[in-house]
C-alpha cells in the first residue's frame, strides 16, 4: 500500500481560509491578484476580448492544433523575446502552448528527461523557490539540487553563494531561474548580477530554464521584466522559458501559457519541435482553447494590447502601494526588526522572514493564512485589512 500524499503547501491555505468563518480572516496564501475590496479582478481588457469572441459569428469549439493557437504563441514570442530578437529572426525559436506555467515547466522537464546531455544532469532550483518546482521536476524523474539564493539574515540576494554553487556544480547542469519577481522572495538580481550569473553559466556550460510567471508585475514594464531572458539570448545560450498568463492577464483558471525553446541553430528546430509536439500530444493531446483565444486577441490587437499594459500597471501600482502601507504601519507600531525588504522586494510576494512558529500563530490566532516559509501575497492586502495584518505581525514578532 502506498502512503497518502502531503497537502500542497500553497493550495491547502485556500481550503483552510475558505473554511474559516472569522470576519478578520486574511488569505495571504495563493498568489492571485485581488482588488482593494479583496475581490478577484477580471481585467477590463480581458472582458472586452471575451465580448469580442462571443460576438464572432465564426466562433466554434473545434479542436485546436497540438502546438496551440498561433495568435497566442506568436504574440507570446514577441512579448518575451522582443520583436527584434535574433532568436526570432534567425528561426531558432519554437513555442508550444501549454497548460499555463506549470504545464510548461512539466513539458520542459519531460523533454529534458529524455534528451538532456549529459544524461545524468540534475535540475538546480533556487533555495528557496516556488513550492511546486521540486515536485514537478522530481515527478518527471530528475535529480533535484539547490543553489543558494536568499541570504536569510538580510533577506537580500546571496549573489556570492549563488555564483559559488553554480560554479561548483558539474558542467552542463540545468538551472531553473526566475525571470523576474522571484517566487517566493520577491528578490531579483540586478542587471549587473544577471550578467555575472550568465558568465558563470557560460563558463560551466549550464542550461538556463527560465520560469516567467510575472512579466509586467515586477516593474510594470514588460520589457524590463524580460531583461534577463533577452540578455541570455543575446549571449547565445540555448534555453527554455516557461511562460504563464495567469497573473499578468488574470487568467488563473484558464491555464494559458507557453514553453519557448531557443536553439543554437535553426537546423535543430524540426527535431525539437516535433519531439515537444509528440510529448504534448501524449499528455494533453491538443491545446486548450478558451484562455488562448482571449490572450491571443489581446496580444494581437494594438488597442487592446495598450489597454492590457495599463491594466497591468493598475495591478502593479496597487501592490506597490500596499507594500508601502504595510511597511509604514509596521514602522508606526515600532515593530522590532528592519522591514525595508517589504518595499524593496518586488512582484506579488513579500518574504517576511517570519518563522514557522510565528506563521502558525498568525494562522491559528489571527486567521491569517501565509505559507510556512513566511511568504505573503501582497496582492491580498487592501486598505481594510492592512492595519490588522500589521498589528498581528507586530504581536507575533514581540511574543
Ligand atoms: C503561487 O505561488 O501562489 C502561485 O504561483 C499559484 C500556484 O500555483 O502555486
Automatic annotation (TrEMBL):
Keywords: Aminotransferase, Pyridoxal phosphate, Transferase. The keyword Transcription regulation does not apply. One of its GO terms (biological process) is aspartate biosynthetic process. It holds the Pfam family Aminotran_1_2. Its cofactor is pyridoxal 5'-phosphate. GO terms for molecular function: L-aspartate:2-oxoglutarate aminotransferase activity; pyridoxal phosphate binding. InterPro entries: Aminotransferase_I/II_large (IPR004839), Asp_trans (IPR000796), PyrdxlP-dep_Trfase (IPR015424), PyrdxlP-dep_Trfase_major (IPR015421), PyrdxlP-dep_Trfase_small (IPR015422). Residues 24-393 form the Aminotransferase class I/classII large domain. It is an enzyme of class 2 (transferase). Its EC number is 2.6.1.1. GO terms for cellular component: cytosol. SUPFAM superfamilies: PLP-dependent transferases. Homodimer. Belongs to the class-I pyridoxal-phosphate-dependent aminotransferase family. This is aspartate transaminase. It comes from Coemansia reversa (strain ATCC 12441 / NRRL 1564). The lineage of its organism: Eukaryota, Fungi, Fungi incertae sedis, Zoopagomycota, Kickxellomycotina.
Amino acid at each position: 500500500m502506498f502512503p497518502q500524499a502531503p497537502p500542497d503547501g500553497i493550495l491547502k491555505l485556500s481550503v483552510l481560509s475558505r473554511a474559516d468563518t472569522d470576519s478578520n480572516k486574511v488569505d495571504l496564501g495563493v498568489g492571485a491578484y485581488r482588488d482593494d475590496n479583496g475581490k478577484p479582478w477580471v481585467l477590463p481588457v480581458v472582458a472586452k476580448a471575451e465580448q469580442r469572441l462571443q460576438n464572432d459569428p465564426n466562433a466554434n469549439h473545434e479542436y485546436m492544433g497540438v502546438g496551440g493557437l498561433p495568435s497566442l504563441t506568436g504574440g507570446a514570442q514577441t512579448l518575451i523575446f522582443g520583436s527584434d530578437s535574433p532568436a526570432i529572426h534567425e528561426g531558432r525559436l519554437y513555442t508550444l502552448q501549454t497548460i499555463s506555467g506549470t504545464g510548461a515547466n512539466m513539458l520542459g522537464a519531460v523533454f529534458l528527461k529524455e534528451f538532456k546531455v549529459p544524461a545524468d544532469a540534475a535540475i538546480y532550483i533556487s533555495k528557496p523557490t516556488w513550492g511546486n518546482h521540486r515536485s514537478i521536476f522530481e515527478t518527471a524523474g530528475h535529480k533535484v539540487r539547490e543553489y543558494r539564493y536568499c541570504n536569510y539574515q538580510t533577506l537580500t540576494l546571496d549573489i556570492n553563494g549563488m555564483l559559488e554553487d553554480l560554479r561548483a556544480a558539474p558542467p552542463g547542469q540545468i538551472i531553473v531561474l526566475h525571470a523576474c519577481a522571484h517566487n517566493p522572495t520577491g528578490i531579483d538580481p540586478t542587471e549587473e548580477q544577471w550578467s555575472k550569473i550568465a558568465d558563470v553559466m557560460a563558463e560551466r556550460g549550464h542550461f538556463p530554464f527560465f520560469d516567467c510567471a510575472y512579466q509586467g508585475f515586477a516593474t510594470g514594464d514588460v520589457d524590463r521584466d524580460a531583461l534577463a531572458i533577452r540578455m541570455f539570448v543575446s549571449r547565445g545560450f540555448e534555453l527554455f522559458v516557461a511562460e504563464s498568463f495567469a497573473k499578468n492577464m488574470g487568467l488563473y483558471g484558464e491555464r494559458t501559457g507557453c514553453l519557448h525553446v531557443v536553439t543554437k541553430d535553426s537546423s535543430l528546430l524540426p527535431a525539437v519541435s516535433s519531439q515537444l509536439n509528440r510529448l504534448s500530444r501524449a499528455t494533453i493531446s491538443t491545446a486548450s482553447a478558451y484562455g488562448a483565444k482571449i490572450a491571443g486577441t489581446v496580444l494581437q490587437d494594438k488597442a487592446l494590447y495598450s489597454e492590457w499594459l495599463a491594466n497591468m500597471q493598475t495591478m502593479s501600482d496597487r501592490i506597490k502601494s500596499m507594500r508601502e502601507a504595510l511597511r509604514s504601519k509596521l514602522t508606526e507600531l515600532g515593530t522590532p526588526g528592519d522591514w525595508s525588504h517589504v518595499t524593496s522586494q518586488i512582484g506579488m510576494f513579500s518574504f517576511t522572514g517570519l518563522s514557522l512558529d510565528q506563521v502558525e500563530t498568525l494562522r491559528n490566532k489571527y486567521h491569517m493564512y501565509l505559507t510556512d516559509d513566511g511568504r505573503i501575497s501582497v496582492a491580498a492586502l487592501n486598505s481594510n485589512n492592512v492595519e490588522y495584518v500589521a498589528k498581528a505581525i507586530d504581536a507575533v514578532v514581540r511574543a
